[in-house]
Amino acid sequence: MRTIESSSGTATPDTLPPPSMAVWQHSHVLDLDDFTREEIELVFEIADAMAEVLTREVKKVPTLRGKTVVTLFYEPSTRTRASFELAAKNLSADTVSIDASKSSVVKGESLIDSLRTIQALGADIIVMRHSQSGAPYLAIQEVNSSIINAGDGWHAHPSQALLDLYTIRRHLGKTANLKIAIIGDIMHSRVARSNIWGMTTMGAKVVLCSPSTLLPRGLNSFIENCRLANVSIENNIERALENADVVMLLRLQMERQQSGLLPSLREYIQRYQVTTERLSLAKSNVLVMHPGPINEGIEISPEVAHGTQSVIEEQVSNGVAIRMALLYLIAGGKNK
Amino acid sequence: MAATLLISGGRILDPGQGIDKVADLLIAKGKITWIGDKGTAPNHSDLKTIDATGLVVCPGFIDLHCHLREPGFEDKETISTGTKAAAKGGFTTVCCMPNTNPPIDSQASIDYVKKVAEAEGIVQVLPIGCITKARQGKELTEMNELAEAGVIGFSDDGNPVASSRIMSLAMDYSQSLGLPIIDHCEDKELSDGGFMNDGWVSARLGLKGMPKAAEEIVVARDISLAQMTGARLHIAHVSTEGSVELVRRAKEKGMAVTAEVTPHHLTLTEERVMGGQLKKNKQLTYDTNAKVNPPLRTKEDITALIQGLKDGTIDAIATDHAPHTLVDKMCEFGLAAFGISGLETAFACLMSLVQDGRLDLKTIISKLTFEPARIIGTRFGELGSLKPGCRADVTIFDPNKEWVVDKSDFASKGKNTPFHGCHFKGKVRITIAAGQVVYKSE
User: Fold this and answer.
1) Which of A169, A221, A178 has its CA nearest to residue A47?
2) Domains along chain B?
3) In degrees, to the nearest 5, what angle opens at C-alpha A80 toward C-alphas A75 and A83?
4) Measured between beta carbons, which residues in chain B are less than 8 angstroms from residue A226?
5) What pLDDT is attached to residue B278?
6) In terms of C-beta density within 10 A (0-12 exposed, 13-18 middle, 19 or more buried), how is residue B313 classed?
7) What confidence tens digit (pLDDT) does each residue in B167-201 have?
8) Span B267-282, mean pLDDT?
9) Taking a contact as any Cβ pair under 8 Å apart, which residues of chain B between 257 and 286 contact chain A?
10) SS3 for A90?
11) Is B14 a catalytic residue?
């Protein structure tokens, strides 16, 4: 595992002033497409302070005391949900966790009605995960609570993209002009979509690499229409890895092969698995990342997943600090 | 008995007869009886005069494709509310699709629709019958009986016949009846549960796309089958450049292929799903009111559709009026129903194309009147014409009236419109169906 110097951490959440509202414009976090570079930098700055809290013996500050954070998950999740809940608890918020598969949703309650109920119960912030792209965009039209998108369908997963960028910055000291290869199932990946916005805003060059059946057909015109000049598409993994500063793997779900998008897992492994040999094409200090959960032996070899370049576990730890920062900023934004 | 009506001083526009002049028009006993110079109408004792100065008087609009939802989905629309919406939109004849519950696949269900339409409908309702029983794509309906009961054609609409063999049998069988197969062209396996056009917006929003090829493949297949069988084929709601080209080539060969296009496919693009063109600080949306099948496409497709209307490739403009409840639409994009409530905005929407100089008024009126009438034929009398002796179906509109769409004013139960809040110029003022004023604006 790679290690880094512990951050100097001059500011702590106990002493942090309210976030600068001149920079922070959000009462919700839905995606990174509407984040400025300054806002992302602010999230990182606060995450640094939060990371310091996480090194303490008592990992708790009173910042969100009296605030209620509800996690509403319509899809199974381990790390994202636990990460948000820990983040909220570390900030002394009251947390309620709703697993939609065990709630009144199974009695036929609509998303809007569930959200209204949660709002009526006094939720200040709702962290939601939903299998349908766009669900949080419906949510903000219907309730006044702040919404944090913890993943919607194939569309966006902004807290993941922020923790990815944060992890990159902590290791490489910058994000501008880095070559970042995102390899795997781009079509179905909310992580890839949010990272496209976040990484390009932070000045990185993004190479998307995947067999064509796992790329959205409109991807090229998406890149063109949104003037994402720093994003390119590359089917060949060797070229994608060449001189890369960061390699980010995406989980390959087994049902993709079953639905005919791939001829076989064998060929995918042969052509797209990141192995030690292939990784040697990248820069020597390349970071290997994965949003998890990992399919070891499919998109990534165990040697690479657990190798010296891997920061996969650290992504998870940084996730807590990033989510604390987002909760802090969102709650502060509401107070203003 | 309806009063005798004199419509005086309006611009009479009847492209079917090549009339475009300021004149008076007389209606008596539900029929058009006379057209002539202002002030020269024959005397009548109980004459009521409508002053149409500054207005356009044209044949009542004909909608080849709408969903009235009755029987079975009366929460979305009824024949009563749907025909009120039609009247408000200037339509005096509407052809209703058979995807009701039960579906219109038997004489009994046609009789039911006709009976309700007679009792509660305020404009003429002509049903379309199913191609296959229960729209399952397996067994043909009793097409002879349906034809006798009064259908204008056959369609499984949203459930297109997947089997080429069944479709060829349907065409063989319907060919002798002279009625068209009305074809919602979609290869459902290829569109694969998609939600919107497969393009840059679907890539950006992370929504599953419906490729244009899913439409064009079936247009091509069914043109081939129509050529083989000699059947009449009417392509519903053409939405892509490729489909226009396929229909154009079929027409060049002299085939009995016709086509329609909707006002929304002529005016909106896929960007409407995310709330319009990208602007800084503009909130992205997933607007379920722009979720429609076929999906909104691109500006290149719009250009081809307009060209198709101009050169005669596309015969008619039809609304595909698809009313839904709030619950059907106020939900996650992927779970929302497809469809736009279109009867009440169709005309104004088309007028925006006239104002932009992309179509002329005569063309849009042709495509709303005598051209769809030709597809229906003359079994129900001569439609889409102001010829003396014809049923007095007349629409009077003000081409310059500015208004803002407010869905809460809709007569339709379906408030699902992507045009809410749109500023339009051009509004229907009076609709007359069989000599009766069925709609009059304030």
Assistant:
1) A169
2) 4-56+392-440 (2.30.40.10), 59-376 (3.20.20.140)
3) 140
4) 204, 278
5) 62
6) buried
7) 999 999 999 999 999 999 999 999 999 999 999 99
8) 83
9) 278, 281, 283-286
10) helix
11) no
Residue B430, SS3?
A: strand
Q: Which residues pair with B395 in a beta bridge?
A: B58, B431
**Which tokens is B119 given?**
């009792």
Which of A26, A119, A111, A75 is closest to A331 using CA atoms? A26
Residues of B in contact with A225 (CB under 8 A): 200, 204, 278
Tokens of B285: 């949306």
Q: Please give the pLDDT value at position B236.
A: 98
Contact check, Cβ <8 Å, B206/A31? no
pLDDT tens digits, residue range B285-314? 999 999 999 999 999 999 999 999 999 999
CB A262 within 8 A of CB A295: no
Residue B98 predicted with pLDDT over 90: yes
Compute the distance between CA of residue B83 and CA of residue B121 in angstroms, rounded to an integer.
6
What pLDDT sits at residue A19? 58
Find the closest chain B residue to A34 by CA distance: B281
Q: So what's the pLDDT on residue B45? A: 79
Distance to chain A for B337, nearest Cα, Å:
14
- Predicted confidence (pLDDT) per residue in B64-75, tens digit: 999 999 999 999
Whole-Å CA distances, A99 to A102, A115, A252, B25, B50: 6, 13, 25, 68, 64
User: What per-residue confidence (pLDDT) applies to A136?
Assistant: 97
Q: Which residues 168-227 in chain B show a CB within 8 A of chain A? A: 198-209, 211
pLDDT, tens only, A294-328: 999 999 999 999 999 999 999 999 999 999 999 99
**Opening angle at CA B211, ends B208 and B212, nearest 5:** 150
Q: For chain A, how are helix, strand and coil distributed in percent, rounded to 5?
A: 40, 15, 40
Instruction: Report helix, strand or coil for A21.
Output: coil
Give residue A104's pLDDT: 67
Confidence (pTM) = 0.94
C-alpha span between B351 and B399 (Å, rounded): 8
On chain A, the residues whose CB falls within 8 A of the CB of B200 are 218-219, 221-222, 224-225
DSSP letters spanning B69-131: -TTT-TTT--HHHHHHHHHHTTEEEEEEPS-SSS-S-SHHHHHHHHHHHHHH-SSEEEE-B-S
Residue B321 · residue B63 · CB < 8 Å: yes
Q: How far apart are CA B262 and CA B268, in angstroms?
A: 10
Residue B281 is predicted with a pLDDT of 62
> With contact defined as beta carbons under 8 Å apart, do A95 and A71 qualify?
yes
pLDDT at B2: 57
Q: How many helices (H) and strands (E) does chain B have?
A: 14, 17
Antiparallel, parallel or unpaired: β A287-289 and B4-14? unpaired
Q: Which residue is it, tokens 């919406």?
A: B85
What residues in chain A have per-residue pLDDT under 70?
1-21, 104-106, 333-336
Q: What are phi and psi of A71, to 5 degrees?
A: -100, 125
Average pLDDT over residues B36-52: 89
CA distance B240 to B300: 9
Q: Are A181 and A215 in contact (CB under 8 A)?
A: no
- Of A303, A285, A196, A210, the residue nearest A251 (C-alpha): A210
Domains of chain A: 37-155+316-335 (3.40.50.1370), 158-312 (3.40.50.1370)
Residue type, A230: N
